[in-house]
Design brief:
Largest sheet: 17 strands, mixed
Strand content: 35-45%
Oligomer: single chain
Radius of gyration: 19 Å
Number of strands: 17
Order of helices and strands: EEHEHEEHEEEEHEEHHEEHEEEE
Distance between the termini: 5 Å
Structural class: alpha+beta
Length: about 300
């Protein structure tokens, strides 16, 4: 059996930046074990599996507006993934010629909507605002925070957690710079040893953006980013994720409240880097907006 497979760089305007995801349009049912093996073979942070719902015939990929969508890391299935959803929508719009402007995905996180807006794709995602740690959680997780910050001198100002995603968010003090964030060298193996993944599956480290730190774009202007971040998920088999849509469902509401802005320009400071726009809507949902580009298309043989 052969299946189509695409590799997409999500939250990127050009190849070899942003976050890689594999997308597999399924023409027949695969069992979970086979999907996991494919994701392990691809060895990207996520592989998406798409199936059209309530549609059949030769044009179903072009006309269907409702799909089943699942995401697998190299080691396990996950409940929410932003960049792999963006990649799946991009493949449908750009590679498979889907004629709809809006797509619905049925996922473990409920119904997610992707809407095409010119060169951009808007993802309608659930908001996952983090909450303060209890005193017991602070005591339990403080060694994990230290391991995430490594030997850097960066200081944590706020530590909060999204229980829905099991994401721990560490806000660096405002005295910290983009350089401090990029200089972080987390000890992923220590993070795994210090915590069993029962309460925390990933750590977001973030800091407020500064205009003077941003590089000039091709027009010679500086683009101010509101939020800079990095994302570490060794419990998912991903020591550092390049650009993480789901993390911005946590960052968006937190920083929107702190900065008094509904629309945030965000940059994830991994070596590949990527741009994410987040809009908080006030209805328990956030819009995650970005671009994507297809880098590889081919077939996988089972």
């Amino acid at each position: 059996m052969q299946l189509q497979i695409f590799t997409v760089d999500a939250f990127a305007k050009k190849p070899f930046s942003g976050n890689q995801a594999a997308v597999v349009p399924l023409t027949q049912t695969l069992d979970d074990a086979t999907m996991q093996k494919i994701a392990s073979e691809m060895n990207l942070s996520e592989t998406s599996f798409l199936s059209p719902l309530n549609a059949d015939g030769p044009d179903e990929w072009k006309t269907c507006g409702n799909f089943s969508l699942r995401w697998f890391t190299p080691v396990t299935e996950i409940v929410l993934c932003g960049h792999a959803t963006l990649a799946a929508a991009h493949v449908l719009f750009q590679n498979l010629g889907n004629t709809n402007n809006t797509l619905e995905f049925q996922t473990l996180s409920g119904t997610l909507v992707a809407r095409k807006e010119g060169d951009l794709i808007l993802l309608d995602f659930p908001e996952n605002e983090p909450v303060s740690l209890t005193s017991e959680e602070e005591q339990e997780l403080s060694p994990l925070v230290e391991a995430a910050l490594g030997e850097a001198k960066a200081e944590a100002r706020t530590v909060a957690i999204s229980h829905a995603l099991k994401y721990l968010m560490v806000q660096l003090d405002d005295s910290c710079t983009r350089h401090d964030l990029e200089f972080l060298r987390p000890d992923a193996r220590a993070m795994e040893r210090l915590h069993d993944g029962s309460k925390v599956k990933a750590v977001i480290v973030c800091v407020k953006g500064r205009l003077e730190e941003e590089e000039e774009d091709k027009e010679g202007e500086r683009k101010e980013r509101d939020v800079l971040s990095r994302f570490f998920a060794p419990w998912y088999g991903v020591d550092e994720d390049p650009v993480t849509g789901s993390a911005h469902t946590v960052l968006g509401p937190f920083w929107s409240r702190r900065l008094g802005k509904k629309e945030l320009s965000c940059h994830q400071c991994s070596p590949r880097g990527g741009e994410v726009t987040v809009k908080t809507r006030g209805d328990g949902r956030v819009d995650i907006i970005g671009q994507a580009v297809t880098v590889i298309s081919g077939h996988i043989t089972l």
